[in-house]
Specification:
3 helices; alpha+beta
Length: about 170
């Protein structure tokens, strides 16, 4: 059935696992249904970002997305180290989906954005798109859930109120 692992051989002791996502998990998103970007930055593809075929190695898109999220938070006045020092809160990616649509290549200039889908007390549901800057062609479309955790205990904590107010000014 959908949402479950394939049937296992009778000799196996491992039970099937229900892999259906939680309703608040990051889900695949349709580009045409996304809200406008709240932040965008440019990233140049360097040789170190590529694989033997001189296209961006898939895991490096995660770095590009992280840089955009970090710079977006900085633009809002939220510096990771200062938030951690003041409140003990750190941000972690809880779950992520990513749709690789087309490859970026050595020397390409990319535009990487951040879009807010939902802001809750301790989590943000975001979408991010990496595009070829010159043409606007979408290369990667992702959705992710970011959670605020207490650095010492690893337990969920609220995102600082002043930051939530900046993320969703019309709350």
């Amino acid at each position: 059935p959908p949402g479950q692992a394939a049937a296992l051989a009778p000799a196996s002791r491992i039970a099937p696992v229900n892999i259906a996502a939680s309703p608040r998990s990051a889900q695949p998103v349709r580009l045409e249904q996304l809200p406008d970007a709240v932040f965008e930055m440019q990233v140049r593809v360097y040789y170190e970002d590529t694989d033997a075929g001189v296209i961006v190695y898939h895991a490096n898109y995660l770095r590009f997305l992280e840089r955009a999220r970090t710079d977006w938070l900085r633009a809002l006045g939220a510096v990771h180290s200062r938030i951690a020092a003041a409140s003990g809160a750190v941000f972690v990616v809880r779950d992520l989906t990513i749709d690789f649509r087309a490859p970026a290549r050595l020397d390409d200039l990319l535009s990487v954005d951040v879009r807010v889908l939902e802001a809750r007390r301790a989590t943000l549901l975001l979408a991010q798109v990496a595009r070829r800057h010159e043409t606007g062609e979408p290369l990667v479309v992702s959705s992710l859930r970011v959670a605020a955790l207490d650095r010492a205990s690893g337990r969920p904590v609220g995102i600082p109120r002043w930051l939530l107010d900046r993320i969703t000014p019309a709350r």
